[in-house]
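Hi R.,

Here's the chain you asked about this morning:
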Amino acid sequence: MRSYVIAIITGCLFCANAFASDSDNDKVLDTFDLNPSSKVKPFAKGFIQINELGGNFNNVIEKGRYRFGDAITLIGDNFSALNDPVVVVYQHNNVFNFKPNSISANQLTFNFDVPKGKYALFIYDADSKTNEMKVDAFNNASPLIFGHSEISLTKGKPFTLNGVGFTKDSKIVIGALKVTPSNITNTQIQFDVPNNAAGLQLYVENASSKSNIVRIVSY
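And here is the predicted structure, written out as tokens:
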């Protein structure tokens, strides 16, 4: 049922995007654009800007980890100067505009309700825009591995991955090997590193989706 509901929501997002108007093609939809006949201009350099972003998981920000429906927190400068901001997310002509869930002096959080894909985003406010950032969206049910993008493993020894979206059917994939975990929770997965492991990349695979890839620097 959940996947069916997600499919309906995703379809509605595409429908809303298809019928939304952006007269000046600046990715700010006319609904939010104070001047829909003229392209939005950047804020004065350094006045309001995005410095980094990450998925927000129980108020812990994980850089580079984003899924459909998850909250994303933008970290930057002078967000308290924003009056009525909109987060603009786009992929070519697929354009989505979101109102924030919360905002403080240096953080802004919104729900990342976009289908899987590669996007750019910026903050629009009072006919001005911030710098742009890149963001890749995973499917809503995808597992995510948190922490560093590089790890060291020891053959024959146990290792623990922290993240989200791990399920009872999750496998750890190391190169060509699929390893069955010794213990799994939604946020942690433990496994014994095979003695014959030789791959230089690792990810977690559920029944229908894969996680982000972590590089193995040594065994």
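One quick note: The two ends are 42 Å apart (CA to CA).

Cheers,
M.
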